[in-house]
Amino acid sequence: ATSILIDGMNRAVGISIFTMLLVGTVEIVLHSISRTVARSVAAMSARKAEALVALMMVVVNTFLAHNTVTILATAAAARNLRERGGLSGMRVCQIVDIAGNTVMHMFPYMITTVLVMALARPDLKLYGVDSLNPVSVGFSNFHSWGLLACLAVVIGTGLWRGESPRKKDAANSAFAGQMV
Question: How far is residue 66's CA from residue 174's CA, in Å, rounded to a whole number?
Fold first, then answer.
């Protein structure tokens, strides 16, 4: 006879090993993509860099189904895109956070969607609902869909982007040249 803790730890070992192997595979793929982007584009627009960071986060999180692992696996590629686009680190961190954490609540196979279904099941009969399916739970999460829509608007319009570090350095260099 084992306890609930021992059973939980035994079940977690397999998924932990799978996640570590998956992160290694994703890191290899992202490193090659990041290298290709670095070779093909010396500098890119801030909007394109932001869009690529957000898209990368959504796609990788869709396959990994784990937001923390996704953020860790895509950090090097996001840093490379930040440098190429001349973005501030804070801006890229916010895009990574929003894009990585909202996807977790939208797709039917993500753990939070499955947990909502499982936790709501006993109370469904009280409200006259027979059952929930994971697709309806994911599509009904208006908060996550709204955050992704806001992220698309912010990236598309450049809202709150501010001055890029590249422009600041160029302005400071020009000002320093006039002072000499």
Answer: 45
